Amino acid sequence: MTTLLEAKGVFLNYGAIPVLKNIDLELIQGERLVIIGPNGAGKTTLFKVLSGELPPTKGAVRMGDDDVSRHTGFRRVRRGVGRSFQVARVFLEMTVLDNVAVSVEARHGHEGRGAGFFRISTSPEVMDEAVGLLAHLGLSAQQNTLASELSHGDRKRLELAMILALRPRILMLDEPTAGMSPTDRAAAVDLIDRIVTENNITLILTEHDMGVVFQLGTRLSVLHYGELVVSGAPEEVRKNLLVREIYLGRNSRHD
Amino acid sequence: MTSITRINRSTFFISLAAFAIAGLLLPMVANRGVVFLGGVVAINMVYGIAFNFAFQKAGILSFGNAMFVAAGAYTTGYLVTQVPQIPFLMVILLSGLSGAILAMITGLLALRRSSGVYFAVITLAVGELIHVLVTKLTFLGRNDGLVGVYRPTLNFGLFEIDLGQGNAYYYFILVVCLLLIAGLWVVWSNRFGRSLQTVKSDEMRSGFLGTDTDRRKLQALVISGAVTALGGALFAPWAQIVTPDLAHWSQSTKPLLFALLGGTSTFFGPAVGAVLFGFLEYSTRTLVGISDLLTGGLLLAVVLAVPGGVLGLIIRLTRIRRSGRTEGRLAEDRT
Ligand SMILES: Nc1ncnc2c1ncn2[C@@H]1O[C@H](COP(=O)(O)OP(=O)(O)OP(=O)(O)O)[C@@H](O)[C@H]1O
Ligand SMILES: [Mg+2]
Question: Which fold has domain A1-80+168-255?
Answer without folding.
Answer: Rossmann fold (3.40.50)
